[in-house]
Amino acid sequence: MIGIDKINFFTPNTYIDLVKLAKHRGIDPDKFTVGIGQSKMAVPTITQDTVSMGANAAFPILDKEDLEKIELVVVGTESGIDESKSSAAFIHQLLEIQPFAKSFEIKQACYGATAGLMMARDYIKTHPGKKALVIGSDISRYGLNTSGEVTQGAGAIAMVISEKPKILAIEDTSVSMTENIFDFWRPNYSDTAIVDGKFSNEAYVKFFNQLWEEFSKQTNYSLSDFKAFCFHLPYTKMGKKALLPLLENESEETKEILLKHYELSTEYTRNIGNIYTGSLYLSLMSLLDSSEHSLKANDLIGLFSYGSGAVAEIFSGRLVEGFENHLVNSTRQELINERQSLSIEAYETIFNKELPKTDGIHPLDESEFDNALFYLSSISNHERHYKKRQ
């Protein structure tokens, strides 16, 4: 039995209220809050990036035993900080994980963390007693006053994978699918993504339908076997577009439980935005952290991971006895509740800031907004340096 032993997320301390943003842009707020289902959007300062957010997500859940037994550190991201050096190498150092661990980065749009999870599962099968750390860390950027502005966000998730998981045991059968398409991409020379929104939505739904058909064939599962289905959520309404057609022929009981749990799984995304590689696992935490779910040990949960370009996967897991005792939901809720709401001016100023690209020593100070434990403190002759607040 291998699966998720511990799980956590991090999001920056600053956000923009989307009703405020809609009014400033001259848009009906309902288009944001109802149409796509978003309320708030995380806005990272230049001192929060893939490395610092990933370290901030992982640090609270790691104990001495984890640091000694982790032999694999995988970071899924499409917001890499270097064309060569992996963000995982930085994170390995910041977290003080034992030195004989392999650390690297995976890229395939929003699918990267799932690729890391599956790799970690396979690694632990052949290395009994060891653990893996899987991180998904990203900043979603489409630009100010663009059609994609409202679906931006920032954050990271971290999962400890072990052979005796305390939260979710991952089942062996999973089904993946790849198709080379241009629904969403970001060239090396661009700091914002290019997206064909309508095509991307259609591709997402198509992938889910085809994968579900094959997955149900291989496992003999029907939707009625599941107590919840968690989705990659670029915005909260996306997964529902894929799920609803499959529910048309299901019983009222199945519809009710899956739709109830779907709504609970969207709460964190609604208040953080799109965090790319971590999105699916953010929805899982949102579901498990809710006081309104009716989940219990051995309940089956489906998971749909989608990365534009495109690779997707459906897999499943069963909740472990006592899973509710191993969540840090109160801490996560505090993180969301204690964030600082930005003015439009502050939001646009933070968004437009750029890191220095010249030789020399460039200290960075965003302490007015950024109070996270780990942060990017300076760039010295093109080297990134991070600090841990005392």
From TrEMBL:
SUPFAM superfamilies recorded: Thiolase-like
Protein name per the record: Hydroxymethylglutaryl-CoA synthase
Upper classification of the organism: Bacteria, Bacillati, Bacillota, Bacilli, Lactobacillales
Entry keywords, A to Z: Transferase
A GO term for molecular function: hydroxymethylglutaryl-CoA synthase activity
Species of provenance: Vagococcus carniphilus
Residue intervals of the Hydroxymethylglutaryl-coenzyme A synthase C-terminal domain: 174-254, 256-388
Family from the record: Belongs to the thiolase-like superfamily. HMG-CoA synthase family.
Superkingdom of the source species: Bacteria
Transmembrane helix recorded as keyword: no
Residues the record lists as binding (3S)-3-hydroxy-3-methylglutaryl-CoA: D28, Y142, K241, N274
